[in-house]
Specification:
single chain, KilA/APSES_HTH, KilA_N, alpha+beta, KilA-N domain-containing protein, 2 domains
């Protein structure tokens, strides 16, 4: 349960969250009319009113499939009589209502769903109701902004963690042989491996041999970053064009390697700038 407090015309009012919806302490609202000593009596008198019962009953029938309509009709038929007395606890127990609940001890009082609480505030004072709605809306806007800030912070941290994990994978799982300097493999290489070495620095087979457990269900491209996959797609297009032009493997590999290094550097630099900008924006919030 999440409790918050808003101040309406110097009256502190508790708000509690129950199952993803807000309930407002109408005992606190009643203090705006009579003070703390008689606030419970104000709630009881309000509940005796026939119009109040009709409003509560209609609300329950709309939102509460387990509401006991027969018991509600019984209360409604007695409402208005001088002898009629109804407590919040009795209303809840007899009708299985969910729009009101009573809390004991710390933060105690009668709480009402916000729809009902606003209706109760009307009975106290239409002016007070307007200020209550205004403060409640201000609270919801603050919570919305806070949630957005937290979401941005989580996204920022997740992105950084992803980059750290990616760097760790590259650091500890890449094969030892330098395929970019020793080009003996190139004469027998398939086109996919020419792209792999140009971008990653090693062949798919070398990666599998260095990572036998990971290779059971994955290949090297499964561990590529978004930027690397973007560059890989561009390399495939360039390579296809150079094959049509009749360029040999050695020439194509050199060109592809230069393209991969340049494009990856551009994308990674832009990404780091974006991360710094996001971090600065979060710091300003």
């Amino acid at each position: 349960m999440k409790n918050r407090i808003i101040n309406v015309q110097d009256v502190p009012i508790l708000i509690s969250q129950q199952e993803l919806d807000d309930y407002i302490c109408i005992t606190d609202i009643a203090k705006a009319k009579t003070g703390e000593s008689r606030s419970a009596d104000v709630v009881k008198n309000w509940l005796r009113n026939r119009n109040t019962l009709e409003f509560l009953g209609t609300w329950e029938m709309i939102y509460n499939p387990d509401f006991k309509v027969v018991e509600f009709d019984h209360f409604k038929s007695e409402a208005g009589l001088h002898t009629f007395v109804l407590s919040v606890a009795e209303w809840i127990n007899k009708t299985n209502a969910i729009g009101l609940y009573v809390k004991r001890g710390k933060y105690g009082g009668t709480y009402a769903h916000k729809d009902i609480a606003f209706e109760f505030a009307s009975a106290i004072s239409p002016v007070f109701k307007l200020y209550l709605i205004k403060e409640f809306q201000r609270l919801k806007e603050e919570e919305k902004n806070l949630e957005k800030s937290e979401w941005n912070a989580k996204r920022f941290l997740t992105k950084n963690n992803y980059l750290i994990q990616t760097d760790a994978v590259k650091k500890y799982l890449i094969p030892q042989m330098n395929y970019r300097e020793n080009l003996q493999w190139l004469a027998y290489a398939e086109e996919a491996d020419i792209l792999n070495v140009a971008l990653f620095g090693f062949t798919a087979r070398a990666w599998r041999e260095a990572n036998p457990e990971l290779a059971k269900k994955n290949n090297v491209r499964d561990f590529a970053t978004i930027n690397e996959l973007t560059v890989l797609s561009n390399l495939e297009s360039h390579n296809a064009q150079m094959i049509k032009e009749g360029k040999k493997k050695e020439e194509r590999f050199k060109i592809l390697q230069e393209i991969a290094e340049y494009q990856l550097n551009v994308l990674n630099t832009a990404e780091q700038i974006k991360i710094i900008e996001d971090g600065n924006q979060l710091a300003e919030i």
